[in-house]
Amino acid sequence: MHGSESRYEAFLAELRRDQLRRELTQIAARDARTLEAGGRTYVNLASNDYLGLRFHDALIDRACDWARAFGAGSGASRLVTGNLDRFAHLERKVAALKQKPAALLMASGFQANAGVLQALFDKAAIGPEPQVFSDRLNHASMHFGCQAAGVRQYRYRHLDAGHLAVLLEQHARPDRPKFILTESVFSMDGDVAPIPEIAQLARDYDAMLVVDDAHATGVLGEGGAGLSGGADLVIGTFSKALGSFGAYIACSETMRDYLVNRCGALIYSTALPPQVLGAIDAALDLLPSLDAEREHVAALADRFRREAHGLGFGTAGSSTHIVPLVAGSAEAALRLSEALREAGFWATAIRPPTVPQGTSRVRCVFTAAHEAGDVDKLLAALATSVGKAAETAST
Questions:
Q1: Model confidence, pTM
Q2: Residue 6: is its pLDDT beyond 90?
Q3: Which of 183, 213, 330, 356 has its CA at a distance of 20 to 30 angstroms from the CA of residue 284?
């Protein structure tokens, strides 16, 4: 072992001691509702495939068709020879969905947030040090982009437009460009940002509003268009409700042109392969016809949330298809996850640093592939876990 590796080994030992070490688990998935691990089948409550599209025949067929027509890979970055004509076709569809003049496809949501924000805050382009106002629970990729750009963030309390207004007023500097960053639906809490109020503040203070709409696009909003109305620049993914892979930016023509010229994550990355583009195309075509699936997902989550409250579980302000069961400590979240696994449900324990200390949770995600009976059995498993915890506490 190299001398430096002993330091990493010690770091991993500390994570293990604090119940925070993570490991990759091998699974197999053959449909949108279940997964297999260790020789057992589980109902999958950890997937972001909100509409169950990753096994949809239309996506699979078009992915195969486009791979046969255009090859298994794109061959280069988009600025070299990887910019297949299919990109322009898809970007027009995304721009229409988001009601923006232009759109740009990129490789992944993390890459898009990190790369786009680093480019937006590039002082060589915009001059003065930008002022960046962020919801404190924004996704790690947004914080990463800010760190990569070397900018300070003014973090407002989660979902608190009033606190954002105070910070904007306190730090009013007309000579410095301003940006507001938020998610629409927060992936660990399942709650929704007050986008209309934040958009009004952005107009009042001449700030650019950037919204990560990854967990709303497809499953929320009219026709699955998401919840990013009022944003100047929208970032999202095709890897969640749209069942495939990749990311998009919806914006003005000027911002698209700037990102093509300045965003390293686009400039230096190989373009998405044709089969992925085909699956995206099919998902975008299906989206307007999936109102029944969206209603089904909402009904499952609403019922589960209501009855989980009755069992004494907190759900962190969730009002969407993402329903966290807040356990507190990392150890308690791991115990709850294991209890659900014994009952046949795959629901992942989410621990720091993904969520703040003391708020470890089991994240339950409902999709169009789930059935009413799944909720019945899940609630029964939770009731059993509560009963066992009470018995343990009394002995």
A1: 0.94
A2: no
A3: 183
